[in-house]
Amino acid sequence: MSSPAVDPEIGPLVVRSAPVDDPGELLSLLPPDDAFAWVHGGDGLVGWGRATELRTSGAGRFAEAAEWWRELSSHAVVRDEVDTPGSGLVAFGSFTFADAAEGSVLVVPEVVVGRRDGVAWVTVIGTGIAATPAVSPTTPPRQPSGATFVDGPVDGDAWKALVAEAVQRIQADDLDKVVLARDLVATLDEPLDVRAPLARLAADYPSCWTFHVDGFFGSTPEMLVRLERGLVTSRVLAGTIRRTGDDTHDLALAGSLARSSKDLEEHEYAVRSVADSLAPHCTSMNVPETPFVLHLPNVMHLATDVTGVMKNGASALTLAASLHPSAAVGGTPTPDAVRLIDEIERLERGRYAGPVGWIDARGDGEWGIGLRSAQVEDDGRTVRLFAGCGIVADSVPADELAESSAKLIPVREALTS
Fold first, then answer.
1. CA-CA distances (angstroms) from residue 262 to 271, 295, 302, 395, 417?
2. Which residues have a Cβ under 8 Å from the Cβ of 340 and sit 6 or more positions away?
3. pLDDT in tens, 393-406
4. Are 119 and 177 in contact (CB under 8 A)?
5. CB atoms within 10 A of CB 143
6. pLDDT tens track for 351-368
7. What distance in Å separates the CA atoms of residue 180 and residue 83, rounded to the nearest whole number?
8. Alpha helix (H) ranges present in 120-246?
9. Which residues are catalytic, by number?
10. What is the CA radius of gyration of the chain?
11. Half-sphere exposure of 225 toward its Cβ, with a 13 Å CA cutoff?
């Protein structure tokens, strides 16, 4: 349900950002409830409380959110003593993968703490002038206990059959690639304190973007789009191989991944999808001809960083809407692939593989793809973990199942003490 950007009874939001001494580990500042996070390599943003929010759904959810944010930002009274992307008025957000799903949200916290390139700040947001609060670590998170894991509605054997069906459809020239996802359901002894898996993910995967918005959390390796003072960046990941833990063997596997025709084909589709979507917004673009291999603790990916220079003043949220869903999470041709996903996948993705991140009043922001992620259900004890794989003509169902299992490892391990 949408809400007015400015409540006539309380007036515009009043925002103040002020520099502060380095507060230390950002995630340690979060309270147990109503916490938001976007951290990468120790820097980023965390927030808590709710000054205002927008909940939206449907095919127009991005446009509605962008218009709400423009209206809210244009009326806000802002005193920003930091003047860096992420200071001033900020909203955290996450959006559903599918148009028909419920759950897309933008939330403006009451307090935001940020750190970037050695500069730290605190932002206070409300309906009146408030003093800058002191920030310090809160109580340690309660560690998850008793986690048990079972397949979601589609078990491993059934999912391999779905992969085989997708391969048949691709070989029949219906499409080039489709991304199929599966879920794993965790049950805990007591409601999850999401700060615990966030801390584990941030420590284990510092090169990823660790996030939490409204019960949806994870650590994504894929930057859908970053907009910073007119420069656009998008990191494309497609093509994956599991690491063994043997450095010599993993180096050889990285070489085989870089030469794999199947993975290179899948990667090319994804890069082309992003470049085509960004082109209308950019005056110039750099699209590398060959990918590099991104090494993560559990897997390696083929990766390409696409960059461009903005020409039309679009916000980071508008760019994210233009890119979603990319071939990396949908397939190619994307409209046909998304229809096939809806037809055969038998999974309610929710916000999995949708944009997640933040935007500021300048329109700058960072939106990742909600991968290596999970959704905490209403009871707090049930957590749905998601993973997906790009299926092309020569995909092998057993190999894709193994790849999806590798992608489930980060959140699965974060839910075990």
1. 15, 19, 12, 8, 37
2. 166, 169, 174, 175, 178, 331
3. 999 999 999 999 99
4. no
5. 14
6. 999 999 999 999 999 999
7. 42
8. 156-171, 195-204
9. 177, 222
10. 21
11. 32
